Amino acid sequence: MSYKSILVHTDQxxxxxxxxxxxxxxxxxxxxxxxGTAMTGISHVVFEAGAFDQHDPLFDQHIRVLRAYADKxxxxxxxxxxxxxxxSTESRLLDDDVVGGxxxxxxxxxxx
Length: 112
What we know:
The chain is an alpha/beta fold. It is about 50% helix and about 15% strand. It starts with a strand and ends in a 6-residue tail after the last helix.
């Protein structure tokens, strides 16, 4: 079986770099597109339900911090991916919790 797209969750845990390396090795072996994804940790339901006033300065500050945290994990993904020749990649940041975000994106990936 050949994979065309592989999704890997990125975060700032000690295991993240190894998870990215393993996903990248599989992607190279199958000539697949590797997608690194990070979530802010706030469920998309919060945004859809209007549970927070998105114009509230405290909410805005909080979401900026969470997005910066997620961005940092995507930077690691991009740094590691750059070291692997001929690896097709893309980075995604979602305003969602990890379970919801990975579940949603897994529908469009051959391997998670």
